[in-house]
Amino acid sequence: MEHREYPLVSIIIPFYNCKYISRAISSSIKQTYPNIEVIVVDDGSTHYLPGIKPFKDRISYIRKKNGGTASALNEGIRKSKGNYIAWLSSDDIFINTKVETQLDFMKRGNYLFSYTNYYCINGKDKIISESVGPSNSSTEVLLNSLKLGCPINGSTIMMKREVFESIGLFDESLIYANDYDYWFRVLLNYEIGHLNIPLSLYRVHRNMGSKRYIYEVQKESVKVKSKYKEDLELYIKNTFRRHQ
Q: 200 forms bridges with which residues in the sheet?
């Protein structure tokens, strides 16, 4: 339900055979923000399904044929009703003030897309890092980071619905770097807000995809960089010419 003071925020959790799914869902439904919907998109899982069962009456559950993270995100976005969208990986956790704090930041700064810092945690939810994220939130810093690799953690983002209505959904042909591709597309069209506060917990474990498929991630990332190289160079030229 839409509310002028508390617009609906849709939290989308792509899920594929992840043993931490119950912790992700629990952190979503415990948000201090009063108007959310939690959408779990089961991307053809065969394991850990009982972790979802206790929450079935408090979430929207969608089961689909396996197609990868981008396809699961897109399915969740299409089925969502919120004016704002947040993404939570099934092995990560939201701090309970995440939605409330980030939405307030976006409203005050008039941002349509934002990301925050995060903490790394281990398999037992113990924080094992300092706050991760740039200390300088300038567009120049983000640009330089994007040229090197993917600087935005998907579990920290929030965007207004009009962003994907304008630039489209995640590229399902990219299995490992669909997020990296999307951040380029957002940057080339919108100002990105960065909140220098850790509001998500990013789980580091031996079965995480970025470790298991590191070669494939790097290969697709190179492809994405090449795809946006000319557009990014033109964007940098035009952006910093205006500020001289």
A: 94, 118
